[in-house]
Amino acid sequence: MRLTKSIPNMFTLGNLYCGFLSIGFAAKGEFKNAAILILIGMMLDSMDGRLARMLKADSALGKELDSLADIVTFGVAPSFLVYYTYFYHFGHLGLIVTGLFPLFGAYRLARFNIGSSKSSLHYFIGVPITAAGGILALLTLFGDRIPNIITSVVFTALCFLMVSRIRIPSLKEVPLPKYGTIVTIFIGCLLYVIYTKTYEKFPYLIYFAAPLYIAYLAYRFIKGKHRREDID
User: Fold this and answer.
1) Does 201 share its domain with 165?
2) Alpha carbon distance 35, 157 (integer Å)
3) CA separation for the pair 3, 23 (Å, rounded)
4) How many CB atoms lie within 10 A of CB 197?
């Protein structure tokens, strides 16, 4: 029973480890690998919350652990990635500027944690740090086709959007089975594009993370389909 309760936290720790590995790859100059690891972290992050609800393993520890993992994988890791690929030209100033991203992200997470649980089911206040970090990872992954000025503008905009009061619609109440096929196809196409762009340097961790995530989506799709048939 205790092992079952720990499963969501294992996924959260996997998310955190992806953030650490991403920073290491970025420091070594393997920027595409670093970006892919952030995307893997997004997969794991999208699973831990749902697994906690499925297994009835929600806990205060899991909530705090999730926030700590998010600030590393989607705050610190994307900042290092953007610095090493774009802002390093500006020296110490570039390092100071990129350091603002995890600061804004940490404030966004803290505000979310103390916010109303009812409102968080329908919308987010400000752009979630997970989405912001994922966008920066994608911009870096396809950076050879995107002008640096666009990345700089998007980076700056995301910093302020995270701490803004803009209401972003939440997908927590959207039934995943209804969109499971679309999401699976999208992720499959994304992984194929990533693979064709990275060749031999494709991180082997994706071979484990991608099938696991797609299997999880398939399970949710089948479970939701059976539930609708039982209701009918």
Assistant:
1) no
2) 19
3) 30
4) 14
Q: What is the pLDDT of residue 199?
A: 47
Residue bearing tokens 């009918």? 232
- At residue 1, the pLDDT reads 53
Q: Which of 173, 198, 215 is the last residue before a domain boundary?
A: 173
Q: How many domains does the chain have?
A: 2
Same domain flag for 102 and 214: no
CB-based contacts of 112, cutoff 8 Å, min separation 6: 120, 124, 125, 128
State whether 151 and 190 are in the same domain: no
Q: What is the pTM of this model?
A: 0.76
CATH code of the domain in which 155 resides: 1.20.120.1760
Low-confidence ranges of the chain (pLDDT < 50): 173-182, 184, 199-200, 231-232
Contact assessment for residue 80 and residue 27, using Cβ atoms and an 8 Å cutoff? yes
Residue pair 94/83 in contact (Cβ under 8 Å)? The answer is yes
221 near 177, Cβ under 8 Å?
yes
The predicted structure's pLDDT at residue 99: 92
Residue span of the structural domain in which 140 resides? 2-173
List, for residues 73-99, the tens digit of each pLDDT value: 999 999 999 999 988 888 889 899 999
- Tokens at 80, concatenated: 């290092």
Residues 167 and 181 in one domain: no
SS3 116: coil
What would the two tokens of residue 172 be? 């927590």
Do 120 and 90 share a structural domain?
yes
* Residue 94 token pair: 């570039």
